[in-house]
Design goal:
The structure is a single chain. It is built from eleven helices and 16 strands. The protein is of the alpha+beta class and about 375 residues long. The chain has three domains: about 90 residues, Rossmann fold (3-Layer(aba) Sandwich); about 60 residues, ATP-grasp fold, A domain (Dna Ligase, domain 1, 2-Layer Sandwich); about 180 residues, ATP-grasp fold, B domain (D-amino Acid Aminotransferase, Chain A, domain 1). Strands 13-12-9-10-11-14-16-15 form an eight-stranded antiparallel beta sheet, with helices on both faces. It has a four-stranded parallel beta sheet with strand order 3-2-1-4, with helices on both faces. The model has no long low-confidence stretch (mean pLDDT about 95). The structure holds adenosine-5'-diphosphate (ADP) and magnesium ion (MG). The site of adenosine-5'-diphosphate has 18 residues, from strand 6 and strand 13.
Length: about 375
């Protein structure tokens, strides 16, 4: 039985473990022991932090794993690629690990490749007002190396910026923040898989957030409802960004705003699947393509099979923030129970939602739009 290493064990990672088992792999799952669902789903659970790449590699080598993969975590990207390189499997070059997980290095790489970018500046403490002279207000302040909407602030004046920078930097592993000009337009993402440098775009996703100042994601829809005439230009913009970041293998998730010019203006790109159930569920539901199987096969050095496995249907995920959201879930349960694909509701609205990780649950629907 072939063995597959999977980095991460939480609820969003669990579908990949299940998929690997369905495909006949013995799954070796690595994460801190925290009582996560994947610890039990795994054939073999190894309680090692996902950042311990050398320790994980040694276990993988001794166990004889064939490949290593993960779903939607930037933190896991470094370990996945470290193990993949040690195994001699095709994967992205080392530069991609940096430019696809650090928002400042990403902006630099995109700009160097001629991809249009908002003005940006890296700081670790609030800059002097004069240093902002080249940037147009309002501005976004965010940690350079986090995800899940942690420490994001839109600010309209210098005093607010000075308050935001230490908070964003405090969330950063390297204590750094990026200050960026604001891009306008509705927000989307683009889900792809690449093999030997060829990018296959599978889906465009409409993104909903709480908006300024913190932009916490509230839901996603596929299809995205973008006018067909704009799609070729968007695909070209996304492919240019993937090339700028030297992405050649595996899943990627490019977030963008659709500008007044009808083109995709990149917010950020992950060299991994989109989280929030986009990669694990929505792409499959809305295209029929088994995206998780494609990620596993690509990790093994095999060209992905993009043949649809089911009839594509509209697919959505909605996150639970409030009683109003729970009321909507109850309505769907009553009026359209067949549309519910999965519900995650641990049962409590306690605690403020400050980022993606503190949302209270979610549900996924598929079928005709409700
Ligand atoms: N330059 C920007 N212009 C407009 N909105 C932005 C910009 N940067 C971030 N945002 C908003 O903040 C959200 C989170 O920022 P992002 O860079 O994607 O961080 P994270 O890694 O936490 O997802 C985005 O989805 C978007 O809504
Ligand atoms: Mg993002």
């Amino acid at each position: 039985m072939k063995k597959l290493a999977i980095i991460g064990a939480n609820e969003f990672q669990d579908p990949l473990i299940r998929k690997a088992k369905d495909l006949g792999f013995e799954t070796h799952v690595f994460a801190w022991a925290a009582g996560d669902v994947g610890e039990k789903t795994a054939d073999v659970f190894h309680p090692i932090s996902i950042t311990e790449k050398e320790a994980i590699w040694q276990v993988c080598r001794d166990a004889g794993v064939a490949a290593c993969c993960s779903i939607g975590s930037d933190l896991a990207v470094h370990t996945v690629n470290y193990v993949q390189r040690k195994l001699g499997n095709p994967c992205n070059p080392e530069i991609t690990d940096t430019v696809a997980t650090d928002k400042f290095e990403m902006r630099r790489a995109l700009r160097a490749a001629g991809v249009a970018c908002p003005g940006f500046l890296k700081v670790s403490v609030p800059p002097a007002e004069a240093d902002l002279a080249g940037l147009a207000w309002p501005l976004i302040v965010k940690p350079t190396d986090r995800s899940g909407s942690r420490g994001i602030f839109e600010v309209n004046d210098y005093a607010a910026l000075c308050a935001a920078v230490p908070q964003a930097a405090a969330q950063s592993f390297r204590r750094e923040a990026i200050i960026e000009e604001v891009l306008t337009g509705p927000e989307y993402s683009c889900e792809s898989i690449s093999f030997a440098g060829e990018h296959h775009i599978l889906a465009l996703t409409k993104k909903y957030t709480t908006g300024a100042p913190h932009f916490i994601e509230t839901g996603h829809d596929e299809p995205a409802g973008i006018p067909a005439a704009l799609v070729p230009g968007i695909h070209a913009d996304v492919k240019a960004a993937l090339d700028a970041l030297s992405i050649r293998y595996g899943a990627s998730h490019a977030e963008f705003r659709l500008g007044p010019d009808g083109r995709a203006h990149i917010i950020e790109v992950g060299s991994r699947m989109g989280g929030d159930c986009i990669g694990s569920d929505l792409v499959y539901l809305s295209t029929g393509v088994d995206y998780m199987a494609a990620v596993i096969h690509t990790a093994l050095g095999q060209a992905p099979d993009l043949t649809p496995r089911r009839v594509p249907r509209a697919a959505s995920v909605r996150f639970i923030f409030s009683q109003g959201d729970l009321d909507e879930l109850e309505r769907i349960k009553k009026d359209a129970p067949d549309c519910l694909w999965r519900v995650s509701w641990p049962g409590s609205l306690d605690g403020a939602v400050t980022d993606s990780a503190s949302r209270h649950g979610y549900w996924i629907t598929q079928g005709e739009l409700l």
